[in-house]
Specification:
The chain is of the alpha/beta class. Helix content is 47%, strand content 13%. The protein is built from 13 helices and 8 strands. Strands 1, 2, 3, 4, 5, 6, 7 and 8 form an 8-stranded mixed sheet that branches. A hairpin with a 2-residue loop joins strand 5 (202-204) and strand 6 (207-211).
C-alpha cells in the first residue's frame, strides 16, 4: 500500500523553535537506498528534526539531491513528495530497461537469491571479462533521465536550504571529490554512483570519476568543517557486522564489497572517537576542536538477509518493503534516542568502530 505523503507531517510538525538541527551522512547501496528513503521520510514526517547539511554517496547522493530539491520547492512536505516520486520513477524506468524484469526474483522481496541464477552469473562473468566501454559503448544510463526529470539542478546551484556534499572517486588520483551545491549537476550525482564494472567513468571538467564509496561512503569531514551542527546521523546501507564466514564466490565478493565500502567511514569514525577521547580527558581544549555527536541508523540483520543482487532490484514492491523497513527503524530510533540530539552521541564509537 502506498503511503500518504503530505497529511501526517502537517499534523505533527512542531514550531520551528522546537526543531533540532542535525546533519545527515547517507551511504550508497543501489536499490537498498530505498531503506534510506524510508528513514528520511519518517524523520521529516516527525517534524522535530531539521537538516543543515547532507554528505552522501551513490544512492545516498540521489536521495540527497532529490530531498534538497523537494525542500526548495515545498519545504518538508515537498521533500517527502519528491523522494516518493523519484523512487517510483526509478522503479518505472527499471521495468522498461532492466534485462531481469521478467525473472521471478522481481517479486521475491529479496528472498530469492538472483546471484544463484544462470542469468545473473552470466552477467557477472561478462562484467569481469568485458568493460562497460565494450558492453555499453553508447554509455546509456536510464537514471540520468530520471534525475533530470525530478531535480531542478540549476535551481539547486542558485540556492539550497540544505548544504550538499556529494562524494566521488577521482579515477586518476584516487582522491575523494566533494561536489557541493555550487557545482551540483546530473553528472556529479551520476559520478558519485558510477560503479566501474557497470558504467563508463563520468568525465567532469577533464577529470574522470567513479563511485564515491571507494574513498568516502560517505565522507564525514565536510560536515565537521562546513556545518555548525555537531550532530551527524549516519544512515547505513552496508552491514558492518555480518555473522558467519562467507563460503561461496558470490558471498565472498559481497562481503569484500561491504568491508571496502565501509572502510573509509570506519577510519573517520576512529578519528572522531580519538578526538572525542582527547576532549573528554581534557587533553584537547574544546575551543580548539569540535566534539561531534554521532548517531547511527543501522539494520544490519535485515540488510544482511539481502543478497548483493538485490541492489539491482528496483521492483516497486521490493522498494516499498525497504522503505517501510527504513520507516520502522527510524521510528524506533526516534522513540529511543531523540533526546540525545544536541547532548551526546547515541552510538558507542569505541564499541562500534574501534
Amino acid at each position: 500500500m502506498d503511503m500518504p505523503v503530505k497529511t501526517r507531517a502537517t499534523r505533527t510538525r512542531v514550531a520551528a523553535s522546537g526543531v533540532k538541527t542535525i546533519n545527515l551522512a547517507l551511504q550508497g547501496g543501489g536499490a537498498h537506498g530505498a531503506f534510506a528513503w524510508g528513514v528520511l521520510d519518517r524523520l521529516i514526517e516527525d517534524g522535530r528534526i531539521g537538516f543543515e547539511g547532507i554528505s552522501a554517496t551513490s544512492a545516498g547522493a540521489m536521495n540527497a539531491a532529490v530531498l534538497a530539491h523537494g525542500w526548495n520547492c515545498g519545504g518538508p512536505d515537498g521533500a517527502r513528495e519528491a523522494l516518493a516520486n523519484f523512487w517510483r520513477a526509478v522503479s518505472d524506468a527499471a521495468a522498461v530497461y532492466s534485462p531481469y524484469k521478467a525473472l521471478p526474483w522481481m517479486k521475491s522481496f529479496g528472498e530469492f537469491a538472483l546471484e544463484n541464477s544462470p542469468a545473473y552469473q552470466v552477467m557477472e562473468a561478462a562484467t569481469r571479462l568485458f568493460s562497460p566501454y565494450q558492453l555499453n559503448p553508447m554509455n546509456f544510463n536510464p537514471l540520468r533521465d530520471v534525475l533530470e526529470e525530478h531535480v531542478d539542478f540549476e535551481a539547486l546551484r542558485a540556492h539550497s536550504h540544505i548544504k550538499l556534499y556529494l562524494c566521488a572517486t577521482n579515477v586518476e588520483t584516487g582522491k575523494v571529490r566533494i561536489f557541493t551545491c555550487n557545482d551540483i549537476t546530473p553528472d556529479a550525482v551520476l559520478a558519485s554512483a558510477c560503479l566501474p564494472f557497470m558504467f563508463q567513468a563520468v568525465e567532469i571538467e577533464g577529470e574522470y570519476y567513479w563511485d564515491g564509496g571507494y574513498v568516502g561512503n560517505p565522507a564525514i569531514y565536510p560536515l565537521i568543517y562546513e556545518c555548525e551542527s555537531r550532530d551527524v546521523m549516519i544512515v547505513h546501507l552496508n552491514p558492518i557486522v555480518r555473522h558467519g564466514c562467507p563460503r561461496t564466490a558470490s558471498e565472498i565478493l559481497n562481503r569484500i564489497n561491504e568491508v571496502s565500502f565501509n572502510s573509509s567511514l570506519m577510519r573517520e569514525m576512529r578519528a572522531i572517537a580519538f578526538v572525542t577521547s582527547l576532549i573528554e580527558r581534557g587533553k584537547l581544549d574544546r575551543s580548539e576542536a569540535k566534539q561531534m555527536l554521532i548517531h547511527s541508523m543501522r539494520s544490519d540483520e535485515e540488510m544482511s538477509e539481502l543478497g548483493v543482487s538485490s541492489k539491482l532490484n528496483a521492483d516497486w514492491d521490493f522498494l516499498s518493503t525497504l522503505r517501510d523497513k527504513g520507516r520502522r527503524r527510524a521510528d524506533q530510533w526516534l522513540a529511543e534516542n531523540f533526546d540525545s540530539i544536541g547532548k551526546r552521541s547515541s552510538v558507542d564509537l569505541r564499541a562500534e568502530f574501534l
